[in-house]
Structure of SGNH hydrolase-type esterase domain-containing protein:
Amino acid sequence: MEMQKLVLAVLIVAATAASFASAASSLVTFVFGDSLTEVGNNKYLQYSLARSDYPWYGIDYSAQKLGVASPPPYLSLSKNDDALLKGVNYASGGAGILNETGLYFIQRLSFDDQIDCFRKTKEAIKAKMGDVAANKLCNKALYFVGIGSNDYVNNFLQPFLADGQQYTHDEFVEFLISTLDQQLTRLYQLGARKIVFHGLGPLGCIPSQRVKSKTGQCLKRVNEWVLEFNSKVQNLLITMNNRFPNARLTFADSYPHVLDLITNPTAYGFKVSNTSCCNVDTQLGGLCLPNSKVCKNRREYVFWDAFHPSDAANAVLAQKFFTTLFSNPPSIPPQPSP
């Protein structure tokens, strides 16, 4: 099954986009991120191990909340494809804020790589429309950025990788934020004005982390680190809004929604939130492979594999974002709590 039908958070992207456009059908969206928003770029990376174009992925996938088509993967388009004018998805499974994140996946597009791809996209748009029209298109477009999970799950939290040994968490999160500052600044310099940064969810509660607990509970310390990261990102966006003219950088806080879904699954029609529907090897890979066994009732599980929500969970989260994401004024950045 094509990777376009991977279990994604595409509905969340579309719901977020709705708040920025009165005519959704004319919205141009550029998407950056990791496997939660990838629609097929890694399929075109011959040696990438961060792929999910396996038979079980996408078995329940659908995206129909808005009349907005999911932007195509950048690597599927030709250099001068007219589709570039309507929005592109640069997201890549295994990608992180840091270039070294996901190194053991061999091939993936880091956030820096994705920004480089967008630079090439803008050059192609300029060639088609001229500088003035290209700048206008890029200024009006929506930029969705959902990245950072792999910097923890597939970097800092892996004991055999250098960053987890080299840095304390205080040092690591400052490294992430300073790098992200430079990257978002690059996007702004390339014409991005309306940027939505999708915060991290409670990573301490995903199956790949829960197995590290003797009792199978959420890892409290990991969740505290995630809250600290989210808080610092939110402060960064506020600073950048003050720093750059016409910048509209928004923080989309998914943490409380995902945590509530995990801690109160029955309230949303789920039965299982502490393990995955697909019987995966959480110690090695954690993806649902073609020979894996899948649960009988997929709609009862919050998680599909060791890392990603099920399609049923994505639908619930998308509805939450669609109705509440920007209905309230910006909140004070959340502070880490026990």
